[in-house]
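Reminder: ligand-aware prediction takes two inputs, not one.
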Amino acid sequence: MRAFDYHQAVDSGQAVEQAVRRDGAKYLGGGTNLVDLMRETVERPEMLIDVTALSRDIDETDAGGLMIGAGVTNAAVAGDARVRLRYPLLSRAILTGASAQIRNMATVGGNLLQRTRCAYFYDVAASCNKREPGAGCDAREGFNRYHAILGASSSCVATHPSDMCVALAALDARVHLLGPEGERELAFNDLHREPGERPELETELRPEELITAVELPPLPMAVRSEYRKVRDRASYAFALVSVASMVELDSNTEDETIADVRLALGGVATKPWRAWQAEAVLRGQPATEETLAAAADAELAVAEPLSGNAFKIELARRVMIAELSQRIVDARKGGES
Ligand SMILES: Cc1cc2nc3c(=O)[nH]c(=O)nc-3n(C[C@H](O)[C@H](O)[C@H](O)COP(=O)(O)OP(=O)(O)OC[C@H]3O[C@@H](n4cnc5c(N)ncnc54)[C@H](O)[C@@H]3O)c2cc1C
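Here is what comes back for the chain with flavin-adenine dinucleotide:
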């Protein structure tokens, strides 16, 4: 690991000022991803600006949602009683990830910006366009069982690794930012980019922008939301396929129809994947198995498998249908109570 300077920020404005002043500065959350990458010399910051003492609260918003500070640990979000009651999929998504020790260190801001687990990205002897633009992509013809079937390009097939982000994509969260030009907000689903020809550009953040908070809007149907993660081991493994889902039924119609739905996928795409196509097929349609299958097929119609991951298409299809079926059962029970 190369030598670097360290600065502990006392407030968000000062953190941004420091980042502007120093070329090659990076914000430091829990360090559970950044420090690993520094050890491998994939990341080589000149200075770390520690932001773990900032934005450590979870507050109610006037709109009836929650504002989660970027410095809140993953463990604290997962354990928060309001999150567990009103947004259970977020709590569950976090608890399927990493280990208790890592969740105690990792922050919300760092989780959003954690980098891919593609082995070729980590291996500085391999070719990787994300690490070194123009170098090529060894994953395309290499060991690509864990790679993306959605949102990929000829330059990059790396998946986004975060579980928390899949839940936030489904919840229509908003990301609050502070940069040299002041504050702004981004829809969570606009934060991460598909790689296209520039896989090194992973987000829509502007230079030196700091994530200060993630806002969860009020969403009544989220009380019956769930997150399911399918992986090679029962714990301590990244998703092969994961599904975040919630469903609202309209039982007043003659055929019980799907009034509203949120669906997002992890483990299969280059960014946390909101299943917009599937949702469009589901809304207003009868809550039948045929509808669910048509929705899953619509989402996966553009899937492009690599040599080692074609199984993800059928796996994603089955998990989507199974999860939506269960959410419909849950919604019926919710309607009765
Ligand atoms: C063994 C292992 C297993 C794991 N398994 C899983 C898993 O199954 N599922 C999963 O989702 N994750 C998993 N993770 C990843 C883990 O969730 C991330 O490492 C963690 O969330 C990163 O948070 P952090 O605060 O430590 O970020 P850091 O490592 O401190 O930072 C990550 C990035 O975010 C930037 N950053 C941090 N805070 C801010 C901010 N406020 N504003 C702007 N930029 C910021 C940093 O500059 C850096 O680029 C695993 C990690 C390990 C080591």
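The chain has a mean pLDDT of 97. Residues 26-34, 36, 51, 70, 74, 97-98, 102, 105-107, 109-111, 113-114, 161-164, 210-211, 238 surround flavin-adenine dinucleotide (CB under 6 Å). We will return to this case in the review session.
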